[in-house]
User: What shape does this take?
Amino acid sequence: MKNLLFVFVVVLLAACSSSQQVAKFPSSKVDVGYHVAKTTNTQPAAAMEEPSTLTASTSAQPVFVPSEGARTQVKEAYSKLSKQEKKEVRQLLKKEIKAIAKSNKKAPNLDGVTAKTGIDYDLKLAAIFGAVGIVGLIIGGNVFNVIGAIALIIGLVFFVKWLIRQ
Assistant: This one.
């Protein structure tokens, strides 16, 4: 019985890892039913923009980068301020940055992506009990077969519970 169960597990693992289960993608000559609109410009979108104006952001709001002319004007105007005026400008900027940061923390997540990390608790328990059950069945013996079967059943219960919530 032990040898038969071991052979069954080995055949099952070999069948799941065979090359027959690999996805087959159609070649580029086959019409797959969808078409991409042709564009007239041959340059990629990133090449059309100036590299100094390209920015990345995780928020849904667009980021605008001022041109070099605006930057030099602000720089010249700031350099003409007195020491006390510069200090006031820095304090106002700090207050504004803190207000923006506070409003970003309170803003709802617009794209639906959460900061949740890891897998679901029930799925994690299903994987743990399933692994314990398979190892118990592979080891064999009267006690380990019973422990393995019980662990697989518990893992299956957690997996079904997770599937129902999805």
Observations:
- Confidence is low (pLDDT under 50) at residues 111-115.
- The helical segments are 2-16, 45-48, 68-79, 83-106, 121-139, 142-165.
- The CA atoms of residues 65 and 136 lie 61 Å apart.
- The radius of gyration is 30 Å.
